[in-house]
Specification:
By secondary structure, the protein is an alpha+beta fold. It has helices spanning 11-18, 22-30, 47-54, 85-95, 110-118, 139-145, 194-205, 223-231, 242-247, 266-269, 272-281, 284-291; strands at residues 37-39, 42-44, 76-81, 102-107, 124-127, 130-131, 136-137, 151-165, 186-189, 219-220, 237-241, 251-265, 296-297, 304-308.
Length: 309
Amino acid sequence: MSISAHLPLTPEEAAQILKISRYTLYELIKRGEIPARRIGRKIRIDYDMLQQYLQGNSMPNVQHSKVSELPPACPQFRFLGSHDPILELLREFLSHSSSPIILNTSFQGSMEGLISLYRRETELTGIHLWDEKSEDYNLPFIKYLLPCEPLTVINLVQRVQGFIVPTGNPFNLKSWSDITTKDIHFVNRQKGSGTRLRLDYFLQEHGISPSEIQGYEQEENTHSSVAMKIANDKANVGLGIQAAAYRMGLDFIPLFKERYDLVVLQENSNRPEWGKILSVLNSSAFHKAIEQQAGYDASLTGKIMLETK
């Protein structure tokens, strides 16, 4: 067993590292986005787990502030796919249900999620892949990558993506074309993420070379880590969701609305854990909780978009 060289952090120390307020940190802990644990009456944040959070991974053996109350034999369901904070909300609802389950999340991008589902490395994935030819989200990619797999595609949420920028939008960015503005430093998403693919589609369509964008090669795995880079003055702009910008106290320039879907293979759709996930997705309480977040639309949440046998 490896031992961390760093002592557990106080909330004040963690907030200082992230350059956010203690209030914002407590909100992130409350939502289950920052791994934390209680020692008596004090909250401590593991340094190494904080770094894992910045990379977009949630470790199944980590005792989160919310998960720590779950019974040790609690059933688990694995998720590997694209990042969205609503998945943390879903995980919180599931952990507080009458028969709680643990949703283990790893955020590696939409394409990696579909491939991992095909390889049976995960039970559930989440994707937001735009297809220019059909002008539709997700279904063309699923039909191409998983052509013979019985599966269900169900909507998690619709959301707004755009430019995450510092408070006051100092470079006065307004549209896609402003991404090549001189002196701005961009922070990108990783290859295979739906956000990265949407950006690359735009660049190809308008004949813009990635070399024209300063910072194009700088990659992050989550919307939260993109926002963190901008909040820490490591970049001036990144493409991401409105919720990530607002949680870091940043400004947001909306560019497009997209559909984020969950995909489960039929072999896992009969499991009781999936039934509990469906129950949450179709609950009015979950829909109301989504609508309280900036940049989300729950009108399709819980709707089956595709079902193959």
